[in-house]
Amino acid sequence: EGDGADVGADGGAEAEADTAALPEPDQEELAILSAERAAAKIERLGFDVGYRLCERLAQSKPLGQGLPPPGSAAAVAAGGTVDPAAMQLEAVKFLCKEFWTEVFRKQIDKLQTNHRGVFVLKDHELRWLRRLPPEDETARVAAIKMLAFPCGLIRGALSNLGIAAVVSCDFLADGKNMAACSFNIKIKS
Amino acid sequence: MSKSSASASGHALWSKMPKANAELFALTYGSLVTELIRDYDNADEVNSQLDRIGHSIGVRCVDEFLSKAEVSGINIPPCQTMKDTADVVARIGFRMFLGVSAEVANHAPDGSAFSLFLYDNPLSIFVELPTAEEAAAINGGSGGCDLSKIKYSNVYCGVIRGALEQVNLKVTCRFVKDALRGDEVN
Questions:
Q1: pLDDT tens digits, residue range A116-174?
Q2: How far apart are CA B82 and CA B169, in angstroms?
Q3: Which one, of B129, B104, B145, lies nearest residue B179 by Cα?
Q4: Whole-prediction pTM value?
Q5: DSSP string covering chain B, please?
Q6: Which of A130, B21, B49, B83 has its CA 20 to 30 A from that of A61?
Q7: pLDDT by residue (tens digit) across A53-95?
Q8: Does B21 touch chain A (CB under 8 A)?
Q9: Residue B175 has what pLDDT?
Q10: What's the CA gap between B20 and A145, in Å, rounded?
C-alpha cells in the first residue's frame, strides 16, 4: 500500500507541473484501464452475438401476439397506433423467454418494470456462474467479468428488435448461491 | 479398437455431454475471431492466437474425455500406435465434443503423420471468407489484415496439439484444405 501511495503522489505532482501532457498512469490505473477495456471488449462480443442470434430466433418464433414487427408495412398501416411501451414490453418478454431459453436453457426468473423504460431481469441460477466457489472475493471479480457477455447479449438482442438501451449487471450472490445475478435495462428515450 | 466400436463410444459419450446451442457457439466463435482481427493487423498473428486458444482448450479436453469415458464405463484401451491415436481422436474425441465425426486417412508410411478430414464444421456455418481479390479491395491497399489468409478454424489445430501434448505426443498440426476457401473438405 505504501508503494501505491508513493507512485500516486509522483503522478499527481507531474500532472500539476505539466498540465499540457497527460500524467504517466501508474500500475493501478493501468490495471483498472485494461480491466475496463477487457470488459468493454467482452461486452462488444456479446452485442454482436446477441444481435445475430436474435435475428435467427425472431425468424422462427412469433414475437408478441399480433403485434407487427417494428418498421413493417403493417405497423405503418396501423398509423403508428401501436403503443411503444407495449412493444418494448413484448420485446423484453421475448428476450426473457425464448432468447434466454436458447442461450441458457431456462427462462429469466423474475421480470420487473416501472413501465417507464426501466426493466430489471433477475436470474437465480445462471449456468455459467454455477461452478464458482462460494464466498470468494476473486470469484466475485471473475463473475462480474463474465457477466459482461450476457449484458452485451441483451443489448444486442434489443438492438435487433429496434430498441436502443443501456444494460448493466449486478451480482446478487448471497454467500451460498453464487449464480444469482440481475440485469438492469434502461431504454434510451 | 475396431472402427465400429469407436464410433459407438463416440456417440454414447456425445449423448452424455451437456449441450449448448450450436448457433450460439458458432456466433460466439465468429465474434471472437472478429475481435482478434480487429486487434491484430496481420493474418499470421491471428492464426497463431487462434492456435494458442485452441491449445488451452485441448489441454483440458483430455482430462474431460478420459474422466467421462470412465464414468460411463466405456473402455478406451491405451493406443499402441499413432494409427490408434488418430482413430481415437477422430472418432471419439471429435464426436464427443462437437457431435461430428472426423475421418482419418493418409497415414505416413512410418506412422508418424496422418490426416483428419472434417466434413461438417459446426464453427463455420454462417461464415464466408473473402477471396484474395475481395480481401485486397476491402483493405483498399492500406495494409490491413489480409482476410483471405485467415485460417478460420485454426482453433482445431491448437486443440489437437494441446490434447496430444497432454499424453506426451508432441505434434504439429496445420490446415491443408479449408472448406471456407473453396475446397471440398476441411
A1: 888 888 888 887 777 777 777 777 777 788 888 888 888 888 888 888 888 888 877 66
A2: 10
A3: B129
A4: 0.73
A5: --HHHHHHHHHHHHHHS----HHHHHHHHHHHHHHHHHH-SSHHHHHHHHHHHHHHHHHHHHHHHHHHHHHTT---PPP-SHHHHHHIIIIIIHHHHHS--EEEE---TTSS--EEEES--GGGTT-----HHHHHHHHTTS----GGG--TTHHHHHHHHHHHHHTT-------S--GGGT-S--
A6: A130
A7: 888 887 776 655 444 455 444 444 444 456 777 778 888 888 7
A8: yes
A9: 77
A10: 21
Q: Predicted confidence band at B94 (pLDDT cuts at 50, 70, 90)?
A: confident
Q: In this structure, are residues A184 and A111 in contact, taking their beta carbons and an 8 Å threshold?
A: no
Which residue's entry shows cell 444486442? Answer: A156
Interface contact flag, B35 A41, Cβ < 8 Å: yes
Tell me the C-alpha distance between B124 and B179, whole Å. 9
Q: Which of B24, B31, B35 sits opposite A102 (nearest CB)?
A: B24
Provide ipTM, 2 decimals.
0.71
Q: Any residues with CB less than 8 A from the CB of B128 and at least 6 apart, and which?
A: B180
Query: Using the beta-carbon criterion (under 8 Å), do A102 and B21 form an inter-chain contact?
Result: yes
Locus of grid cell 431504454: A187
**Which residues are CB-neighbours of B7 under 8 A, at least 6 positions away?**
B91, B95, B101
CA atoms within 13 A on the CB side of B48: 5
